[in-house]
Amino acid sequence: MKKIILGCIAVVLLIPVLIGVYVYRIGFLDDKQSTTTIEISDIPAAMYVTAEPVMPDWKVKKVTAYNDGFVSPTCTIYFTNDIELLLSTSPVTYPGMDQLLVNTNLYEVYVDEQDAVFQYFSGGYYYSFKTKRGTNEQLVQQYIMSL
Description:
By secondary structure, this protein is of the alpha+beta class. Helices cover about 30% and strands about 30% of the residues. Strands 1-2-3-4-8-7-6-5 form an eight-stranded antiparallel beta sheet.
């Protein structure tokens, strides 16, 4: 009787492990397979949105799309001036960063010792500009205020 009970427990524990190994082997849980390089014109299709995002005239280094099938897809635009723009359809939280109080309700600012993130919502997208502290913060603020 004890062997039957232990056998059943072993089977119940072994099945989720085998399913997890299978899912990992087919690449379903691999972030590298969920991230692809795309063109700027492919952003609406990658994010399942019809509207085109409004972006600054800065030179683009690369654009990546992330879609793991669980959370809403995102696109990250890497500019040559070391600013990153994360586009999402839901607000992004930045754990470990402090939210600053800004005099305007146009955008939110998150900071830590190294980075600053400026986030605002427009046209179905959440725009999150990330830059190193001090280097391009003024440039991002000027761009947001010009909208």
